Amino acid sequence: MAKVAAVPAKAGAEEAQAPAAGSKKKLIIIVAVALIVLIAGGAGAFFMLKGGEHKGEEAAKEEKPHTPPAFVVMDPFVVNLAAPDSTRYLQIGITYETSGPLIAEEIKTYTPVIRSRILMVLSSKNVSQLTTIEGKQALMDELVDLARVTIKGDVKDPTHGIRDVHFSSFVIQ
After folding, report:
1. What is the pTM of this model?
2. Residues 131, 137: contact at Cβ < 8 Å?
3. The predicted structure's pLDDT at residue 58
4. What 8-state DSSP symbol labels residue 22?
């Protein structure tokens, strides 16, 4: 029979320890990677759920009952425009859009004051200011501010219920 050569005891022990040390390193790396993945997944889930709560709150705010607007139609205005060389006039129909019937009643209560102030504003305008879209938009903003000041005394606070102003007619002659 063939004789098997004897392997020195020290060499066999080193080979047995080398695979064990390598497998420990692999195990540590695998555990570390698994922990990183779990932490990243947990953080991602936390932020997604936290963001979802805010979206739910926004949706709940939007679901509040929306009241339809109330409109207050003013009698038509006819005013002389501020034209130095000619007699030009403006005929305009104005309708205020409010957030509800309570504000519409307040506008009706203050109609004489609002009409007077509108007449003063319109008569101070000239043809060149009113013929452009920008000029008409500026007039609309001015009329909304005028009504807000008359009713509540605050120009820029939209919670006073006057949402917008609309022109039903706009004729310059």
Report:
1. 0.59
2. no
3. 57
4. H
